[in-house]
Fold:
Amino acid sequence: MLKNKKLNTALSILGMVISIAIAYSVLVFINKDDPNVKETSASAETSEQGLMYDDLGDFIASNHTFYNETLGWGRDRKISWPKQRKQAEAIVNSLNKISSENEGLQQDLGSITNLAETVQSGDKDKDVLIKLHRYFHDLDIDYNDYKDTSDYFGVTEYKGEG
Structure:
């Protein structure tokens, strides 16, 4: 009988610990897009500081990461529009200084600029954000040789040529 009581107590404590861990995880997930919660990712710091990029590959990868973190895996159901507008502003500012001699890539950068300007203007069209994400996703694959996914949307003119 004493063994059963110790086992029941141990299982009860284990159950409480697991419940607390699950509750904490849920709270962290829910508050991830809360503007009052300070972000620690490099892409968030970049957009908050409005830093410019000297390297096109870094620009593409950083923005792809930003959109993965803010739109990917169902996060597009709870969009922080102020955060998206701030990122769009950083994109437009960066593209004022970044260009490419590759015609297809330059067309893509122009399309990204137009989409970012739409978001920056205050338009809350989720489809524009998704299209921006797809541009950065495909460019990350073609330009940076990103290999973390087999998804490809085919939205870019640039296809990895010089």
